[in-house]
Specification:
Largest sheet: none
Mean pLDDT: 92
Radius of gyration: 28 Å
Number of strands: 0
Distance between the termini: 21 Å
CATH architecture: Orthogonal Bundle
Order of helices and strands: HH
CATH topology: Helix Hairpins
Number of domains: 1
Shape: rod-shaped
Low-confidence stretches: none
Length: 129
């Protein structure tokens, strides 16, 4: 192997480490975002379930249901606010992971191409002898 190939291999290993780190970071962000979306969906389901009662409400029951609905609506709003604050970091982590993965892949292909070219040149030299 040539020095260039060795350097590309070292760069590829470094890029792979960075790619793995960014993928883990993105995975953690994704886990938090998915958990928050599931929480929001659960709250919305709970809110819808409050009013799907077929029995007639008494005044006291209506007050209780409205109080519960208000609480669930506040929790939903808070969760949606948290999610909207997470999304810019989530998108940045996704872009970083894609960039680092692409960099590692490009370096791998460059090294493979260079290795193939070096082997072909060596075979031509042997054939010319």
């Amino acid at each position: 192997m040539s020095r260039t190939t060795d350097r590309l291999e070292q760069l590829q290993k470094l890029a792979k480490l960075r790619s793995d780190m960014e993928m883990r970071r993105f995975s953690a962000f994704r886990h938090h975002v998915e958990a928050m979306r599931a929480r929001i969906d659960g709250l919305q389901h709970d809110l819808a379930a409050l009013y799907q009662v077929e029995d007639k409400f008494s005044v006291s029951q209506a007050k209780l249901v409205n109080a519960m609905a208000g609480d669930i609506a506040r929790q939903t709003l808070h969760a949606e606010t948290e999610l909207s604050q997470m999304l810019p970091g989530f998108e940045a982590a996704r872009q970083d992971a894609v960039r680092e993965f692409g960099r590692a892949d490009v370096l791998k292909r460059l090294r493979e191409n260079l290795t193939t070219e070096e082997k072909q040149k060596a075979q031509k030299k042997l054939a010319n002898l």
